[in-house]
Design goal:
Strand 23 and strand 24 form a beta hairpin. By secondary structure, the protein is an alpha+beta fold. Strands 16, 17, 18, 19, 20, 21, 22, 23, 24, 25 and 26 form an eleven-stranded antiparallel beta sheet that branches. A five-stranded parallel beta sheet has the order 6-5-9-10-11, with helices on both faces. A two-stranded parallel sheet has the order 1-2. It is about 45% helix and about 20% strand.
Length: about 775
């Protein structure tokens, strides 16, 4: 009801101003004029409630408004300098109400003049400045006006010869981010109001306005990552305080490597009350193992692994394992193959001895890093997330060593269905949990979290072991420029956290007062960056490489727009939304195609992209020519589909035994002019396997041959009715190949999928156009 109330209140104001303009030539209205057009009955009210609603809105204004300290100080400086100073406002509040509002924000405030536009029937863009100059007897050239609306304040003042100063509430880029954040908020938290945030945006505007111009990376920290990490920091402190109230002796460990930024924010605010401990999933899982199962679980997802990497993980060279690698090309096997063979390659006692050594070295490291480790009763583990794997492994390590310290995970993002096996005395909680956003949304965020990990990460390699209470690290393959960029983003984040702490009391703002609201907005701010980045952010962050870790030297790209485009061509939009990594930043790869692609992907992740709208539907068939190496030809009918975006798809399945060398595609039969989005090929042992194959290969444009076609970039035009595109067929990688052609026809309306009287798709021997405009008059396909 609150959302409906707000929207009806906005619509009532629009109607009131439109009618005022028609009647008087000015859009100025009072608050009572607005509520005359409000639908009282809808909300169970009579028209007698008009005055009550106007008064309640004014009381809300009194509660929510804040004085800008910088503006107030400039105002007082002018007063102390003997200048006549006052206020001119475009507002539906009367002069008396405006006076009360000003004194509510700054008690004792005085002025020499006060103008409310609704009392004068004219705004600053019209004649209000003229009224002010005439009534006050002031020379325009000696008058100075400060305002935040470029049209009303700046242009309006200049039109009357008054010197203006523009003081924007938010820069254009920040305002754009706010708009996208609101959209993300309403998708992620659909049942929650997006208009109130406990002052978080007011504080962000204030911090940004007072931040000197810095590098683009620094600004990402100030405007985006800073607010998220500030909310996370408050969440961690709330967890610590709750345990302390119960009498616990609490220690806090921030897990490296991507726990570094939360640690730096905590350290800047609270000193050395927390420790940065470099423990990763690999080390903790090996240390907790008493069977081969944890090691197999660790290795299974690994795409490729060699003997050197395996030895680096387990610290031994079992002969049987070395022989296993020797039988593979270049000594490289898949993690799944190794995990399956491991029970036959290693004695379970070997992993027990390995784990005991890792445990002893790890515990020595913890005692060296965490002050009074053995004296604490509770240890908070801080990390970005997600399934508490390090926490679970540490629990097993502590239990094996008789350490009774309780463990409490404090995570930014959590996969909450992974917490059911947390020990009874331990806890795990996320700032952005499934009580804040839905599981669908959570998985979308985590699918794209690699960007956040790289920005929060330390600039050192991952932990591989410990010695003498010190960490031993892997080499770090990330480029120096990427590390410098991440450090600059972190500097901006720290700057935001510091300035926000200083400014919040001046504005009487408490953005973390309601933990649930703070968590929702943290999810929206983070979600906006990960899911709807703007072009500046794509240009800045798109070149980052993701450190795959696990003892490898691999760096995976964050962005690959070409891969996503090929996936859309071959498999459709919906299937592309589930593309496996890499690319690591899937949403960013969609955004690199276009902002609308990124928004469609976001809708998919929020479970708002219906398959029967954005999927494919057959709209006919087309005869294509298949030529063998001996120039013998045959005709085959292939299905033509239309997509939810109005494009056309043709899928041409071929088998190795057909011995096809060239596909002759009669494009002119489809359209005389259009856009060719791409041609791809997928391979598999069957047609079904080929269609599911995510390893999509694009056919380079230069290999295509035109016959009575003219092509310029993606655009094509058939010069005759026989215009064809000849597609070369390469050697088969498997038994079946599926060639997919994606295009947009530009010379007709979209084609409709047709059903027969029984509700089945009606087949046709050749494609016959049936547009949306002539659907009622056509009986064919």
């Amino acid at each position: 009801m609150s959302v409906s109330f707000v929207q009806h209140r906005i619509q009532a104001e629009a109607r009131a101003r439109k009618l005022a303009l028609e009647r008087s030539g000015s859009t100025e209205v009072r608050i009572a004029d607005i509520y005359k057009y409000f639908p009282f009955r809808l909300f169970g009210l009579s028209r007698d409630a008009l005055g009550d609603l106007a008064q309640i809105e004014f009381e809300a204004e009194l509660e929510l408004c804040r004085a800008n300290p910088e503006m107030l100080e400039q105002y007082l400086d002018m007063k102390r300098g003997g200048l006549r100073v006052g206020f001119i406002s475009d507002t539906y509040w009367s002069t008396d109400q405006l006076a009360r509002l000003l004194r509510s924000c700054s008690p004792g405030l005085t002025w020499d003049f006060l103008y409310a536009s609704c009392d004068h029937g004219s705004g600053k863009s019209e004649a209000l400045f003229e009224t002010y100059l005439a009534e006050q007897g002031i020379d325009a050239a000696s008058s100075f006006h400060v305002g935040d609306n470029h049209n009303a304040d700046i242009k309006g003042a200049r039109r009357h010869g008054i010197r203006p100063r523009y003081y924007p509430q938010a820069s254009a880029p920040l305002a754009s981010k706010f708009q996208r954040e609101t959209s993300i908020f309403e998708l992620q938290c659909p049942d929650q109001p997006s208009r109130l945030d406990c002052g978080a945006r007011t504080l962000r505007r204030a911090v940004t306005a007072r931040s000197a111009e810095h590098s683009p990376a620094f600004n990402v920290g100030v405007t985006v990552l800073g607010p998220v990490m500030a909310a996370f920091d408050a969440f961690i402190e709330a967890r610590r305080a709750a345990l302390a109230r119960e009498g616990a002796r609490v220690a806090i460990g921030f897990l490296g490597r991507d726990g570094l930024l939360p640690y730096r924010v905590w350290q800047a605010n609270r000193g050395e009350t927390g420790a940065y401990v470099e423990i990763n999933r690999r080390v903790s899982l090996v240390g907790s193992a008493d069977t081969l199962e944890p090691l197999s679980e660790l290795l299974s997802p690994v795409v490729k692994i060699d003997a050197a990497t395996f030895v680096d993980i387990v610290k031994v060279q079992p002969p049987a394992v070395m022989k296993f690698f020797a039988q593979y090309p270049d000594g490289i096997a898949s993690g799944r193959e190794l995990a399956d063979a491991l029970p036959d390659l290693m004695d379970p006692l070997e992993i027990t001895d390995i784990a005991a050594g890792v445990r002893a070295r790890l515990l020595a490291y913890l005692r060296a890093k965490i002050a009074e480790f053995d004296g604490c009763t509770d240890l908070i583990l801080v990390d970005l997330g997600y399934s508490a794997s390090v926490q679970k492994s540490l629990r097993r390590i502590f239990d094996r060593e008789g350490i009774r310290i309780r463990l409490h995970g404090a995570y930014l993002l959590t996969l909450d269905d992974a917490f059911d096996d947390i020990a009874d005395d331990d806890t795990a909680e996320g700032l952005i949990s499934d009580r804040i956003v839905t599981p669908h949304v959570k998985r979308m965020l985590i699918r794209n979290v690699a960007l956040l990990e790289q920005l929060c990460c330390s600039d050192e390699g991952s932990a591989r072991d410990y010695h003498g209470g010190e960490v031993l690290r892997e080499g770090d393959q990330r480029p120096a420029a990427q590390l410098a960029l991440a450090n600059e983003v972190q500097s901006g984040t720290l700057a935001y956290a510091s300035r926000a702490r200083a400014l919040a009391p001046h504005y009487a703002l408490q953005p973390d007062a309601d933990p649930i609201v703070a968590a929702r907005w943290a999810a929206a701010v983070l979600g906006r960056l990960l899911l709807l980045p703007d072009d500046d952010e794509l240009a800045l962050l798109g070149g980052i490489k993701h450190d795959v870790n696990l003892g490898t030297q691999a760096l995976a790209p964050l962005l690959d727009a070409g891969f996503i485009n090929d996936c859309i061509v071959a498999r459709g939009l919906l299937t592309a939304c589930t593309a496996p990594a890499p690319p690591m930043w899937l949403a960013g790869s969609f955004a690199a195609l276009s902002p609308s692609h990124a928004y469609l992907y976001t809708l998919f992740g929020a479970n708002r992209l219906p398959a029967n709208v954005f999927g494919e539907a057959q709209c006919g068939t087309l005869q294509v020519g298949l030529f063998g190496p001996d120039s013998q030809a045959s005709l085959e009918a292939v299905s033509v589909y239309h997509t939810g975006l109005g494009d056309l798809r043709l899928r041409i399945p071929l088998s190795r035994r057909m011995a096809v060398a060239t596909i002759a595609l009669p494009l002119a039969k489809l359209t005389r002019g259009g856009m060719l989005h791409g041609i791809t090929v997928q391979y598999g042992e069957s047609a079904a396997k080929a269609a599911e194959n995510s390893n999509v290969k694009a056919i380079p444009e230069g290999r295509l041959i035109d016959a009575s076609l003219e092509r310029s970039g993606r655009q094509f035009r058939a010069t005759t009715e026989d215009g064809m595109l000849l597609i070369p067929v390469d050697g088969f990688e498997d038994d079946v190949a599926i060639y997919t052609v994606a295009l947009t026809a530009l010379d007709h309306d979209r084609i409709l999928a047709v059903e027969d009287r029984d509700g089945n798709r009606a087949p046709s021997a050749t494609l016959t156009w049936r547009s949306a405009n002539d659907a009622q008059a056509t009986n064919g396909n």
